User: Fold this.
Amino acid sequence: MSKQYPLFFVQRFKGKVLFNVLMSEYTSLLIGGPADVMAFPRDEGDLKELLSFASSKNYPVLILGSGTNLLVRDGGIRGLVVNMTEGFKDITWQEETDKTAACIAGAGLSLAKMVSVCIERGLTGLEFASGIPGTLGGAVIMNAGAYGHEMKDVVEGVEILDRKGKKGFLSRSDLDFSYRSADIPEGSVVVRVHLSFEKEDSGEIKKRIKNYTEKRKRTSDIRLPNAGSIFKNPRGHIAGKLVEEAGLKGVRSGDVKISEVHGNYIVNLGNARASDVLSIISLIRDKIYSTRGVVLEPEIKVVGED
Ligand SMILES: Cc1cc2nc3c(=O)[nH]c(=O)nc-3n(C[C@H](O)[C@H](O)[C@H](O)COP(=O)(O)OP(=O)(O)OC[C@H]3O[C@@H](n4cnc5c(N)ncnc54)[C@H](O)[C@@H]3O)c2cc1C
Assistant:
């Protein structure tokens, strides 16, 4: 299969390229069939090469952060997966005042790293993200959030490469953030994120993070592989509570189980398949619609072939 995608023609590419890799090794659910090609661009030059090459050959492209919000189907991914986690980790600090600071940070940086830099520098705004896994780029695309805060509160804009590798900038208003969503042109890659923060005493920031961490432990201390919340909370409801009230916690299909701890989490008991996750998702959606009249929309992104 990978012979269809001869990436060795991308001569100036400096990063690693893998063929026929199991996506289960690159997702937090540990589920997913093989990707034909996975390339790890080291910098913008690499990424530009990849995108323009793939676009000229009409190869399908999937952008991958840490795979913590992804369900990859069992047939895997045809085409090219661009893995952003081996480059794009730079942080450049911008103008600073007594009260505020701003930076431009690489999309491949982990959210956890960005939070720890904020603690070190006494910058508030990103505390909510302390327990959210994944990359900064993935967090922007998902407008990741918790405890009433979202990425949109700290993002001023993003530098992107479009599907042909051409540079662009999208401001916060261009991104048109909404609940777990940001609007970027199809096939574009977030390369850097412009962030702004207010200054605060590091002790206060740490206290807030400690509270959030304890809350997260109480409500979703899940030790088995998962992808966080499966469904968005529908207006006026909490998805996990609907699942719990429907008596679905603990329900299994193959090696996939609805978590006993949190109704909106699905866990992999060992050898879970995407098809089992998808059948659990439809079971939950059918039951909640038929008993409560509420339509649950998936928060996780489902990609790949059956
Ligand atoms: C234990 C656990 C707890 C979680 N808790 C929360 C929570 O509290 N709140 C919350 O909002 N989410 C939560 N999540 C979900 C997930 O962590 C977030 O959505 C996270 O921001 C995804 O980042 P990622 O790098 O893993 O993205 P991925 O899963 O790799 O990708 C997600 C989407 O973004 C796209 N993408 C990724 N990077 C880029 C890029 N640079 N440019 C363009 N497109 C890109 C991908 O194509 C895909 O469509 C949780 C997940 C887990 C496993």
Q: What stands out?
A: The pocket of flavin-adenine dinucleotide is lined by residues 28, 62-70, 84, 107, 132-135, 137-139, 141-142, 144-146, 189-190, 226-228, 301 (CB under 6 Å). The CA atoms of residues 178 and 205 lie 26 Å apart. The chain has a mean pLDDT of 95.
